[in-house]
Amino acid sequence: MVKQPFACGECNRILPDPAHKNDVVQCTNCPSAPVTTDWQGYVIILDPTRSEVAKRLNVTSPGTYALKVNIR
Ligand SMILES: [Zn+2]
What is the CA radius of gyration of the chain? Predict the structure, then answer.
């Protein structure tokens, strides 16, 4: 089973694994936002200005994002 990476509950960015396994995963854009492995839909956005998905997610910088992040 492949480990699901964390995604940011605020900006939907999929977060890389921490360099050390006991480090807390945090979004560099929104450090106070909750993160979760409960998300769906992996999208790679190369050019946010030309992407409908990016507009829908309010994404302004290129990267990998989750389409839906489930934060309670
Ligand atoms: Zn974020």
Answer: 12
